[in-house]
Design a protein that fits this description.
Strand order of the largest sheet: 3-1-5-4
Distance between the termini: 25 Å
Oligomer: single chain
Number of strands: 6
Number of helices: 2
CATH superfamily: Nucleoside Triphosphate Pyrophosphohydrolase
Radius of gyration: 14 Å
CATH architecture: Alpha-Beta Complex
Largest sheet: 4 strands, mixed
Helix content: 10-25%
Structural class: alpha+beta
CATH topology: Nucleoside Triphosphate Pyrophosphohydrolase
Length: about 140
Amino acid sequence: MPDILVSAAVITDDDGRVLVVRKQGTVRFMQPGGKPEPGETPAQTLIRELHEELGLLLDEGDLEPLGTFVSEAANEPGHRVVAEAFATSIDPASVAVQAELAELRWITAGDVETLPLAPLSTEHLLPIAWPSLRD
């Protein structure tokens, strides 16, 4: 199964909600982030993507590395996503849908059962924010 390398963010707010986004032409929500450009580190990729997609301005000191996680890709059948993940906390008023995004939502653990989410989110990233979701 071919790999897709990405950087992804587990972004929380002061109320413990987590930000998820949905790209145009897709149905599943996922953590914001994206694919690297040549020569970028995972943190640099994430900083660029968060600025392009959400208008968010961060630097590497704002990101807490979480590790590398692998899941089935949500939007590319037959592929795996290999994500370098980072955590950060922001003010919800500091982000807005831009670029290829169709929608953003601030969700709670209760939304996980009813919202179409990417495998990477449900298997790895959301349980970091809400340990009660771990199997």
